[in-house]
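Ligand-bound model needed. nicotinamide-adenine-dinucleotide.
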Amino acid sequence: MTVPTGFIGLGNMGNPMAGNVLKNGYAMTVFDMNRKTMENLVAAGAKAAASAIDVLKQADVVFTSLPGTPEVEDVYLRPGGLIDSAKPGTTLVDLSSVLPSTPRKLEAAAKAKGLRFLEAPVSGGVTGARAATLAIMVGGDAAVLEHVRGILRCIGPNIHHIGPAGAANTLKAINNMMSTVNACAMMEGLVLGLKAGLDMKTMADVIKQSSGNSNALARVERALIPRNFEPGFKVALMNKDLDTFNTIARTLHVPVSFSNLAQRYQQTALAAGLGEKDTSVIFTLIEQLAALQPAAPAK
Ligand code: NAD
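Prediction:
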């Protein structure tokens, strides 16, 4: 039997994740402050709520997929927010990428009210969210994970219990640091190759079979050749994830380097007003630094 489920935050990730849960037969109530994001889900059978709190009236398990710590802490912890208003026994699962201190606070506040809480940041991008192939990193009580495992299974097959609240967002920040460092290094390499007269697709095809291969090369055909920089994963969100990584590093006195180099590019993109573009837009900034004339987008 499926439990009534709610979803708050229906952006690039939340929308396809909610859609996949809905497709698996769960009664679904949705809310996003941008009402347009609810339309396709309502057309597919979800119920639109008037507010985040309204979702609680309809659902026993409520997921959130919000930009970051400020939004998550506001939605959960403000007076009259999710934790104040949920009926005892409700399970709240935050899929957002946030500071590890956030799930620790939310779990304690939720338990004090007789609620269940899990952090469950995800990885795999919008492509993985649409295909229901996300990796899900879970922090919190293992028993709560078992309670919602069936629903999580609708958004991704790789569900990992990492440890207590905060552990999953620590791992998520490490993953995103590594993924963006790979991507920035890949884009610097390709710009150098283009300036040397090499062909972008040839470079990508050969490096995919060589020791420089990484997931970052998937951007070549998805974003760089068509020059499609719509998100995807927004620069502002990656900048936030590098802030998280650097905050953890400072707290633990780990002298990290590469996250700072990658964050210089995110900061440059933010300064250029590109915060809402996909992180692949950094390619255009590297082109400018190299005084490389951009190629016309492929047809
Ligand atoms: P997004 O900006 O596309 O979506 C966020 C949604 O939250 C928006 O629709 C916004 O209107 C809504 N929202 C904001 N504040 C709200 C509030 N108070 N109440 C209700 N709705 C509110 O972001 P996204 O790319 O979907 O990312 C969501 C989370 O997932 C972030 O923490 C991000 O870091 C993480 N993430 C993103 C990706 C990716 O590839 N995009 C991959 C893995 C993890």
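The mean pLDDT is 97.
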